Amino acid sequence: MGKHIVILGSGTAGTMTANRLRRAYDESELRITVVDQDDSHVYQPGLLFVPFGLAQPHALVRSRPHQLHDGVDYRRARIDRVDLDARTVYFAVGGWIAYDVLVVATGARLLPEETEGLTGPGWGENVFTFYDLPGAVGLHHALERFEGGRVVVDVADMPVKCPVAPLEFAFLADWYFQRRGIRDRVELTYATPLDGAFTKPVAAKALSGLLERKGIELVTEFTLGEVDGKGGRLVSYDEREVPFDLAVVVPLHGGAEYVERSPGLGDELGFVPVDPHTLQLPDRAEVFAIGDAAGLSASKAGSVAHFEGEVLVRNIGRFLAGQPLDGSFDGHANCFVETGFHRALLIDFNYDTEPLPGHFPGPVGLPLMKESHAAHLGKLAFEWLYWHSLLPGRELPGIGSAMPERGKIHLPA
Amino acid sequence: MPTATYDGTLVPVDDEGFFTEPERWTEPMGEQIAKELGIDTLTDRHWTVIRFMREQYAAKGTGPTVRVLGKTSGVSVKELYQLFPKGPAKTAAKIAGIPKPRGCI
Q1: Cβ of A277 under 8 Å from any chain B Cβ?
Q2: What is the ipTM of this complex?
Q3: What number is the average pLDDT over the span A63-80?
Q4: A42, A131 Cβ separation under 8 angstroms
Q5: Which of A34, A53, A200, B58, CA to CA, is 20 to 30 A from A218?
Q6: Across the interface, which of A199, A239, A333 has its CB nearest the CB of B103?
């Protein structure tokens, strides 16, 4: 009788993990069950483009089980809780499933109701998020009706999925209003809880320079305390105000609800505090987490889940064989930052190395931290790669889990 | 490595004035740093937060963010901003003599 791996979540991280494991192990050695509560796998990088009419909402959604290889069981159920001592997952409607290895891959959840006023008057009228599909579609209609005024893009507080997406939204909004010929009637503001446009100095400098060139005002250290939809004001906890006619807010994020109902599994925000290098839960050798669900100081991004996957599959194999884990994740993230006008800028970094200029993946490659048409084409091509190469669990030739040092130029900020 | 003198003792700090060696910190140093940051008197509520920051740093290797502080310290985010108006996580970390909270990327 083989071992049973239960993977909670069938998004980017869970699907890739299931398929990678299925490719690596025979069905007689390993049974794989994936659990998710619905059948809609959303291509989340596409959400950014929906408000600008650059992506069709229905084209971003595919069936979850259809992305899984043959030989992976799909169980559609809401999770009530995990009992770590009993190595059992309980479902909301009753029933349970036992595991030898558990992989938590249920991502991050949007918590707009945790910010005062955010889901109150104005929500869906002049206050939106583009971080889920209904929000992105609603925002698309609002943008089409918009004839001028103040538009603010605000990140409530960290951590959020894809920390560059709100910046990309601001860049694309500048492009969108120019294309419509009303840019001179629109005031664009970007408000962030960070002390710069990005967390790391070299990238923060480059990205704040881009905001400035595009005439987008940058408001820093703005932690969202209250949204006044009727009065058109965002108010920070330290009582500063940003007025708006249209607010695009990235709400607070937390882990999946069942994590909070599972003693010992999550941290204060419902993310799973696994070891940053092995992805294993301390004191629970059979429990791992990957992707946005993991409480790591790595970006919550699909590329991170992909790079983690290689390490995770190796470590699960070592664990099953009773050997010490030797797979080590370095925090590698790689993001195409869409900057508008058919250009994008690529950043590549890990736990220890901030985004730097140079080329990726080596001295001959895509330029880093510099706008180019090639990077924009890379971003567009990525959607095909996502469905046909990354989700099926294939490796990208020439791009490994570890961040490449070759090609990077170390500069003082 | 820059240094600063608190309570008559020279201690190493980072470029932004955060302690790099938290074990060198004393409560009188915390009071002096608070004054320099515009907080004249540290109340019991301030100390609740400061001690919580140090415990969290000892346990996790980084100070908590404002949001985590609000959920776990027993002091709400609103009150945290009243106590430490210029950004609770950073200000309290500086007073508590721990390195700058890493936050998230």
Answers
A1: no
A2: 0.80
A3: 97
A4: no
A5: A53
A6: A199
Structure tokens at A231: 């009065």
Q: How confident is the model at residue B105 (pLDDT cuts 50, 70, 90)?
A: very low
Residue ranges in chain B assigned as alpha helix (H): 27-36, 44-60, 66-72, 77-83, 88-95
Tokens 């027993």 belong to residue: B74
How close are the terminal C-alpha atoms of chain A, in Å?
A: 57
Q: Which among A69, A74, A75, A105 has a CA at the least distance from the CA of A90?
A: A75
What length does chain A have? 413
Q: Point out the residue among A158, A238, A252 whose CB comes nearest to the CB of B103.
A: A158
Q: Is the pTM of this model over 0.95?
A: no
Measure the CA–CA gap between B40 and B85, rounded to whole angstroms.
Answer: 13
Can you tell me the distance from the alpha carbon of A36 to that of A312, in angstroms, rounded to the nearest whole number?
Answer: 20
Task: Please report which residue ranges of A146-293 form alpha helices under DSSP H.
Answer: 165-179, 201-213, 257-260
| CA separation, residue A213 to residues A52, A140, A148, A178, A246 (Å) | 21, 25, 20, 14, 22
Q: Tell me if residue B104 is catalytic.
A: yes
**∠ CA A367-A370-A375 to the nearest 5 degrees?**
60
Burial of A151 (C-beta count, 10 Å sphere; 0-12/13-18/19+): buried
The two beta strands, A366-368 and A358-360, are antiparallel
Chain B contact for A221, CB < 8 A? yes
